[in-house]
Design goal:
The complex is a heterodimer of chains A (170) and B (103). Chain A is 74% helix and 0% strand. By secondary structure, chain A is mainly α. Chain A folds into two domains: 84 residues, Four Helix Bundle (Hemerythrin (Met), subunit A), CATH 1.20.120.1200; 39 residues. In chain A, helix 1 runs antiparallel to helix 2 and helix 2 packs antiparallel against helix 3. Chain B has one domain: Helix Hairpins (Orthogonal Bundle). The chains are: A mainly alpha (170), B mainly alpha (103). Chains A and B meet through helix 1, helix 2, helix 3, helix 5 and helix 6 of A and helix 1, helix 2 and helix 3 of B.
Chain lengths: 170, 103
């Protein structure tokens, strides 16, 4: 129980620290590396919440896929000059004020409603019962079969769209 | 207050990550970093979904998180493709220098 708490705070610190570094660093490569740390922290939080399948998906897809895509684009697009210019736009103070206002609001309501969320002790997993991956697959391929097919269509459209966008003459 | 980690802890963390991502989208000029901030926002949503999936002892939240990840992948691929096309034509990655439609 204590280990869980310590791990939660560790992963939360990695996630939030990585996120803050991502939006404040000058160089896009540094931002990308901070984002990788943040995504790994989120993966750890998934593992703490007994979502083992999503933990694997998070690492393989985000850290292995999306971040490599980002680093490729950073290499393709010349960001040397952008790193020496102004990093924040003229309305940054307004953006910060709005974010802080929304944050104060959300935190206030979470504090007011904290009593409504008490995590019940998880039922002990039956030995030999369906694991997390099997449970997800059972629901995904029966109840959510149509959204699953629509998601595959969305990915097809995205593939065609990004190939057309990256063509020489557009 | 702090010791047993409850769903509220996850919700607070998720809200904080969402706000960091929103600040990045609103305040940064570099489009690559704006796209990274959008990834942060989507991850905050996923933390929320997983926390509630655990709270209700149901895997439906995890299915939702899978769909969110799918959309995030599609969004990143198309967004970076648009960014490359934009850089080829305008030679800039700063969001406030792209003002073709500005009156």
């Amino acid at each position: 129980m204590l280990t869980d708490t310590l791990l939660f705070y560790f992963f939360a610190a990695v996630t939030l620290g990585g996120g803050i570094l991502t939006v404040t660093r000058k160089s896009a490569v540094h931002s990308a590396i901070a984002l990788i740390a943040s995504l790994l922290g989120v993966a750890g939080l998934f593992l703490l919440q007994q979502a083992e399948f999503l933990f694997a998906v998070q690492i393989v897809l985000y850290v292995g896929g999306i971040m490599v895509l980002f680093l490729f684009v950073i290499m393709l697009v010349n960001l040397e000059q952008a790193a020496h210019e102004r990093q924040f736009n003229k309305q940054w103070w307004l953006a910060l004020a709005c974010v802080l206002a929304v944050g104060a609001e959300v935190m206030y309501f979470l504090k007011k409603g904290a009593g409504a969320f008490r995590l019940a002790p998880a039922p002990a997993a039956a030995p030999g019962g369906p694991g997390n991956t099997q449970a997800i697959a059972d629901v995904l391929f029966s109840e959510y079969l149509l959204p699953f097919e629509i998601a595959s269509l969305l990915l097809l459209v995205a593939v065609v769209g990004s190939v057309i966008m990256a063509k020489k003459r557009i | 207050m702090l010791y047993p980690v409850t769903t509220v802890h996850y919700l607070v963390l998720s809200a904080a990550l969402l706000l960091v991502g929103t600040a990045g989208v609103l305040a940064r000029r570099n489009i690559v970093i704006i796209l990274m901030s959008i990834e942060l926002i989507l991850n905050a949503v996923n933390i929320n979904l997983i926390a509630f999936s655990r709270y209700f002892h149901s895997v439906n939240g995890q299915i939702f998180a899978i769909f969110v990840i799918t959309v995030a992948v599609a969004e990143a691929a198309v967004g970076l493709g648009i960014l490359i096309a934009l850089f080829r034509n305008k030679e800039t990655v700063q969001a406030d220098e792209i003002e073709l439609l500005k009156w």
